[in-house]
Known about the structure:
Elements: E1 10-17, H1 18-24, H2 26-34, E2 38-44, H3 49-53, E3 58-61, H4 71-88, E4 92-95, H5 98-110, E5 115-120, H6 131-145, E6 150-153, H7 156-162, E7 171-173, H8 187-197, E8 205-209, H9 218-228, E9 233-237, E10 256-259, H10 264-270, E11 273-276, H11 285-292, E12 296-300, E13 316-318, H12 323-335, H13 337-354, H14 357-374, H15 398-421
Parallel strand pairs: 1-2, 1-4, 2-3, 4-5, 5-6, 6-7, 8-9, 8-11, 9-10, 11-12, 12-13
Helix pairs in contact: 2-14, 4-5, 5-6, 5-15, 6-15, 8-10, 9-12, 11-13
Amino acid sequence: MGDRHRDRPRLAHLTTVDISLAILLRTELAYAVEAGWEVLAISAPGPYVAEVEALGVTHVAVPELTRSWDLRSDARAARSLLRVLRDLDLDVLHTHNPKPGVMGRVLGRLARVPVVVNTCHGLWVRPEDGLARKAAVYGTEVLASWWSDAELYQNDQDRGTLSPWVPARRAWTVGNGVDLDRFRHDPAGRAAVRAELGVADDEVLVGGVGRMVAEKGIAEYVEAARRLGTRATFTWVGPTDEAKDDALDAELVGVRSLGMRSDMVAIYSALDVFVLPSYREGFSRSGMEAAACGSAMVLSDIRGCREIGTDGEHLLLAPPRDPDALTAAIGRLVDDAGLRARLGAAASERAHRSFDQRAIAQFSLDTYRRVAVRKGIVPPTAVPTSADADADADADADADADAAAAAGSAGADAAAAAGSAGADG
């Protein structure tokens, strides 16, 4: 940044796999490029690299990164990632996802990256998880946060959970967003998808979107489809995920599995009812996308879904793991076209008011500069004048030194705890 001798500050986003960069962070990457940053994207290589680089972003491959936790392979990945971070000479490292979030914060500091920021996309625990798992996940996140300069949370509940241990002066709830220029109701796309599926316009089409894993609530969804029978056509869109212990195959009795699709705006527009019966979400992206396209929705009554809207006003909520409640909520929408229209319109209005990913991207850029000012890396005049940009400008810089010193003694503990956390990378 201020004392680096190059034309543009250099920023890298770190995720486990390239699909996260291409889909979850697409707008954030493009926005930073537009703002004049040199943007790099670090992940394992994969089929989405070309999409990432088409944004004007340089992809840096770390083949050893994997989503599953294994201390031996993760040690190899850590060595490779540390070498990459040292070679890149970054100004800012922004980490995402559980594994690279933990590993990247520690290694970013060891590589002497001036500004390290992490986004928590959801703490990887469920309400019914035992104390040991919760302690491992929360403890790992807290220890890793000691190595970062700022922690960004997608929902207030996660921030509140860790607030006793993560200082408020470097923790913010930023929410989540989608590309609102792209995600809008598409009548032509709706007609094309429904023609492909052989569903008439006066028939009801119900669908869910997500990886084919049990924690998405697919078993409960299939049971609801069985009970509702011929009252609607049921679909599910999403890839299989053999790397997960709870992976499902693509054959779902009574549900048409459509696999991976690239025409998601048309898919959402085709659905009369969107369903996400997930057990755990950080802040549901598919829920935001469906809302922006005007779908009536049934979501799980969990953090990460409740943020999408208010029960009965924008959507219907049903308790997770409860096929009776899920069936009743879906059936209510299947049978009431007026309710579908009212909830779909309200959800779309809320989404286009509250879920703009460009605002999230700007908050990230403000955070980088806010941290840099606090650490004396750039002059105050270089900081944007947004409402939040100077909120932390006068924070005590000694706190960073204290955190770094404390982190030095906790690094080994953090790595060990990460291995036992059982979080999905």
